[in-house]
Amino acid sequence: MKVYFNNSCKICRSEINLYKKENIEGIEWIDITNNELAEKETLKKDKELLRRLHIKEGENIIEGADAFLLLWKKIPKYKFLYHLFKFPIIFSVFSFFYEIVAFILYFKNKKQLKNKF
User: Fold this and answer.
1) For the chain, domain boundaries
2) Which of 6, 21, 46, 102 is deepest in the core (most CB within 10 A)?
């Protein structure tokens, strides 16, 4: 499983670093910042990758709130979040707020990327 995240975003980087500390086998962490290979692997443009968390599992690309669910499911320490947020009503609320926060972070951090925007 490959997790594509925005390392140029301080908030994103901090959260991903918490997950990385768990040293889960089978998770590869990919910084999407100015990463053309990530664009090819996901078939997403740089702006799309910057906008949300993405995971590639097999041939499937999962993004946004769904990606967080999958990530939490794979990390024992955070599996309780998967169990909490997987319920449809709770997931809908989580997904809504995730999109708002992701949108704000996107505009805040896109300025940090060189020659892209």
Assistant:
1) 2-112
2) 6
